[in-house]
Amino acid sequence: MRLRSPFYTENLGTDQPYNSLMLLCPHCDFTCPGCQNVHLAKEPLTDFSIEELADLIASQLICDEGLTIGGLEFTKSGEGFIQELARLCESASVKNLTIYTREEIDHDYIVEAIKVLKPVVDHLYIKTGRYIAGAPSKLVTLGDFQITLASDNQNYAEIN
Ligand code: SF4
User: Fold this and answer.
1) Is 147 helix (H, G, I), strand (E, B) or coil?
2) Which end of the chain is more exposed for a tag (fewer CB within 10 A), N or C?
3) DSSP code of 44?
4) 101 lines ligand 1 (CB under 6 A)
5) Contacts of 148 (CB under 8 A, 6+ apart)
6) From the CB of 35, is ligand 1 less than 6 Å away?
7) Which atom of ligand 1 lies closest to the CA of 131?
8) Which atom in ligand 1 lies closest to the alpha carbon of residue 28?
9) Lowest-confidence region among 12-16, 66-70, 87-91, 152-156
């Protein structure tokens, strides 16, 4: 699975309702003005086996934590990425999974992602909308959780 530098991040009340291992998508060919993720494209690009990532998850996450698939752009991750992610979630018994993507979702890609990923995790969340500098933040409620999103164009939903 081709990714850039995974890292562990605590839930600080922003972006996802659980502590998380952040997996950085490999690519983005959109050119949004003021992109906040330009530096991520300089992170090393590595081919991980599912087993290596499952070991990383086992060593870093405890039971109520999960994965976040973040910038660059999920829908530009290449052929087979969704299927590899599903195999990883299943093999590592991932309970919570959040995908970040932009406002102008590739509808077919997201429909396919939901179809493949929802059966292998307990909770699948999708956060849409890129960060817009200067926009007000937004508080969203998801069940028992409250999350502050960095700009008010963004949305966050659990897929049931
Ligand atoms: S989609 Fe995200 S990563 Fe890609 S250019 Fe836009 S803001 Fe940057």
Assistant:
1) strand
2) C
3) P
4) no
5) 13, 14, 137, 138, 139
6) yes
7) 7
8) 4
9) 12-16
Tell me the best of 15, 30, 69 to mutate to test the pocket of ligand 1, counting ligand atoms within 8 Å of each CB and taking the most.
30
Cα(32) to centroid of ligand 1, in Å? 5
How many helices and strands (H and E) does the chain possess? Answer: 3, 9
Residue 115 has which token pair? Answer: 């179809």
Q: From the centroid of its chain, how far is CA 158?
A: 13
Closest atom of ligand 1 relative to the 71 alpha carbon: 3
Instruction: Tell me the residue type at 141.
Output: T
Q: List beta partners, residue 34.
A: none
What distance lies between CA 108 and its chain's CA centroid? 18
Q: How many residues does the chain have?
A: 160
- DSSP H or E segment with residue 143: none
